């Protein structure tokens, strides 16, 4: 197995976070700028179901009445604007078209606007930080379809973006793997095991027990189930403390394997800001890749053929 993503991952993104003034109040942000040069490592597909539904810019705010996005799809709730007008059917059609568009460009993830009754996943209102009725209408669809969902505001934080990015690449890699033998299955799990243990140790332990108790022979049907369980774990954010602990363990392994040190890597108990931690992680990624060692915190990296050739030539 190769522990690289060579093709750019395609991500959908709420257009109001991609520089378009598409919010109900004609505002927007260009949050993709926050991740700097890394933005070119992805293919972005900007969408806005509310605009596609013909609700206009600016427009009256909308809300889910009588439930959440799941309930709307089940015909048990409606979506209304401030005037009380029902916009449910137009918005449902726009969300289905959005999903179709994302599938047509092979998007596996979506950068969503939390707090939106359409795109929101865990919150559908911006008022007083209340939850509203999550998930939103599009959020409900993307959750059911198994998309890798990233809150747009987390692109403003270098450390949170690093966490999302490394899990996204592992997510994409797992999905791409062609499993033909039981050994392939074991290899896949070993590659992402330590990352999964960092994110959700109980669920990772359960996956490990399942693999250990597999009957003799190879069951292709089990591969789909195992991949889904692993990908569900990879959707879960980590914490600063767990990231620092895993970074240190990886660094200790790196020193033993290469007999080299990286001066900027600090012990997890040492205090430093988020920016410094992010620099440590990126430097650890770079050094591990160049020296051919396994970095369990970020086991899968994106490297284009052009970038690899430049590194070889230098």
- State the share of residues found in helices, binned by percent: 40-55%
Total count of domains: 2
Q: Show unreliable segments.
A: none
Please indicate the percent range of residues in DSSP E strands (runs of 2 or more): 5-15%
Radius of gyration: 21 Å
Number of helices: 11
Shape: globular
Any chance you could write out the topology, listing elements then pairs?
Layout (H helix, E strand, L loop, with lengths): L3 E2 L3 E6 L27 E6 L1 H4 L9 E4 L3 H5 L4 E4 L6 H17 L4 E4 L24 H8 L3 E4 L6 H19 L5 H18 L1 H12 L7 H15 L5 H19 L15 H18 L9 E2 L2 H9 L1
Parallel strand pairs: 1-8, 2-3, 2-6, 6-7
Antiparallel strand pairs: 4-5
What attributes characterize this protein structure?
4-stranded parallel beta sheet; 314 residues; alpha/beta; globular; single chain
Describe the structure.
The longest helix is centred in the middle third of the chain and has 19 residues, at 158-176. This protein folds into two domains: 8-155, no CATH class; 240-313, no CATH class. Helix 6 runs antiparallel to helix 7 (201-212). The chain contains eleven helices and eight strands. With 314 residues, the protein is of the alpha/beta class. The two termini are 25 Å apart. The protein has helices at 49-52, 69-73, 88-104, 137-144, 158-176, 182-199, 201-212, 220-234, 240-258, 274-291, 305-313; strands at residues 4-5, 9-14, 42-47, 62-65, 78-81, 109-112, 148-151, 301-302. The chain has a four-stranded parallel beta sheet, with helices on both faces. The protein has a two-stranded parallel sheet with strand order 1-8.
């Amino acid at each position: 197995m190769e522990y690289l993503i060579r093709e750019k991952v395609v991500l959908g993104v709420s257009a109001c976070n991609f520089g378009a003034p598409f919010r109900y109040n004609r505002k927007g942000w260009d949050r993709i700028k926050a991740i700097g040069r890394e933005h070119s490592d992805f293919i972005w597909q900007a969408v806005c179901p509310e605009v596609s539904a013909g609700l206009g810019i600016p427009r009256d705010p909308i809300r889910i009445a009588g439930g959440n996005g799941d309930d709307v799809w089940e015909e048990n709730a409606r979506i209304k604007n401030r005037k009380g007008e029902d916009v449910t059917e137009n918005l449902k059609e726009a969300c289905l078209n959005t999903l179709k568009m994302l599938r047509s460009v092979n998007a596996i993830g979506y950068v969503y606007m939390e707090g939106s009754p359409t795109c929101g996943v865990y919150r559908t209102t911006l008022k007083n930080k209340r939850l509203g009725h999550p998930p939103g209408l599009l959020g409900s669809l993307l959750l059911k379809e198994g998309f890798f969902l990233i809150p747009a505001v987390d692109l403003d934080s270098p450390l949170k973006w690093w966490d999302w990015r490394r899990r996204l690449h592992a997510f994409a890699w797992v999905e791409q793997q062609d499993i033909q033998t039981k050994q392939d299955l074991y290899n896949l799990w070993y590659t992402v095991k330590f990352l999964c243990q960092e994110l959700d140790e109980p669920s990772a332990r359960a996956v490990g027990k399942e693999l250990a108790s597999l009957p003799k022979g190879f069951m292709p049907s089990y591969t789909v189930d195992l991949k889904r369980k692993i990908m569900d774990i990879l959707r879960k954010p980590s914490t600063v403390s767990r990231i620092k602990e895993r970074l240190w363990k990886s660094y200790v392994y790196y020193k033993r394997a290469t007999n080299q040190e990286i001066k900027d890597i600090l012990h997890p108990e040492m205090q430093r800001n988020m920016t410094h931690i992010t620099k440590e992680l990126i430097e650890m990624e770079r050094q591990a890749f160049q020296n051919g060692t396994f970095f369990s915190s970020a086991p899968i990296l994106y490297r284009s053929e052009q970038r690899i050739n430049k590194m070889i030539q230098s």
